[in-house]
Amino acid sequence: MRILLLTHNYEPELGAPQQRWGAFVRRFCERGHHVTVVTPPPHQPRELLIDDSAYPRPGQVHLGRYGEVVHRAHFRTQGHALGTRIVDQVVTAADTTRLSIQRLHRHRPDVVVATAPAIPTLGSGAVVAAALRAPLVTEMRDAWPDLLAVANEWDEDAVPPGRARALVHSQLIRAASVGMSTIQRRSAAVITTTDTFAETLRDRGLTEVHVIRNGAHPVPRYPRHLPRVPDGELHVLYLGTVGRAQGLGAAVLAARHAHNAGVPIRLRIVGAGAEYEAVAEMAAKGDVPIEMVGQVPRHEVAEHYAWADTLLVHLRPWPALSVTVPSKLYEAMSIGLHITGVVDGEAARIIRETRAGATLSPGDPDALAELWAKMVADPTSLVVGPEPSRWTQVHADDDSLATRYLAVLERIARRRG
């Protein structure tokens, strides 16, 4: 089977989307399928790449790590401002469309997979699939278009727009929502990463919806968490994207409240994203022991897990986020690290049912500070049994997930033939 993958994020970059598709492409190629990927060159610094021996350029074609053929599309250098990220995604989507049609019209794929959260990639997928007369599978790793309902909260530091600009903004949001819903309905299949968002889409009339969760990817040199010897101080680790959806400013406030109440706590934030600088500025105020580490290579993740007593999984109180599950949740479950889950919906349910840690609803820093105080008072509450790891072996195993994904793609491809 010839599979064409359109994605804004791919190896050798680090990140959840890159890990997800690196795991799938490897297994697709190992099972004899021909995979072509159209994606921009890495946007990250060389020192953070999986392999910095080659830094592909726009327009370049090369073999990937697993035998896949990778076409590199043009992109626009992006900062953390929302506007520049959107421009980058639009530029990449436009060139992805051009490259795919020009270079693959003689060797048409059996199926096209377009993966979000980069919204313009979905539009590119629809155009490419139509031009190459191939079925389209859209993958929704986030709850689109539902997240557009809180679009006015994505860039909270921006100057409020004037009336005319606000009207144009609302019309663009509505057009994007209608466009995404239309693409979902016209796709041969839609892939989600959670049961709850799949049910949401089915309730809207979509019938070909499949759940392929994120995988619990192995942590280099750290197969199992070894709890620290208790010393009276609680080590809280956040590891992942420091973005708009995470709202880590609330976690900084919680750490400050706990510290002011005499709770011996240390918060370490490892990662990068649109809100990193704002969170770092908050963390620098006062004498609260908060470490801002920035993004680290994958091989350095183990030392941060070994330092931690609990992993913080944190989301904003946005309704659309209740149908998402952060991928770091599965990683922590697989190694047996206690989780502090400031989440609602499916993510909270998984933590509770597997006894992987403690949960509370987002948006209440005082409650989070109180929860951490209870952990300090009772260190035995941080002990995690085998249930979380067993759950990931059943529901988040990369081999099983790849098998299920291929079954969907093969069925769609046969239907086309």
From TrEMBL:
<dbReference type="InterPro" id="IPR028098">
    <property type="entry name" value="Glyco_trans_4-like_N"/>
</dbReference>
<protein>
    <recommendedName>
        <fullName>D-inositol 3-phosphate glycosyltransferase</fullName>
    </recommendedName>
</protein>
<dbReference type="InterPro" id="IPR050194">
    <property type="entry name" value="Glycosyltransferase_grp1"/>
</dbReference>
<keyword id="KW-0328">Glycosyltransferase</keyword>
<dbReference type="GO" id="GO:1901137">
    <property type="term" value="P:carbohydrate derivative biosynthetic process"/>
</dbReference>
<keyword id="KW-0808">Transferase</keyword>
<dbReference type="Pfam" id="PF13579">
    <property type="entry name" value="Glyco_trans_4_4"/>
</dbReference>
<dbReference type="GO" id="GO:0016758">
    <property type="term" value="F:hexosyltransferase activity"/>
</dbReference>
<feature type="domain" description="Glycosyltransferase subfamily 4-like N-terminal">
    <location>
        <begin position="16"/>
        <end position="215"/>
    </location>
</feature>
<dbReference type="Pfam" id="PF13692">
    <property type="entry name" value="Glyco_trans_1_4"/>
</dbReference>
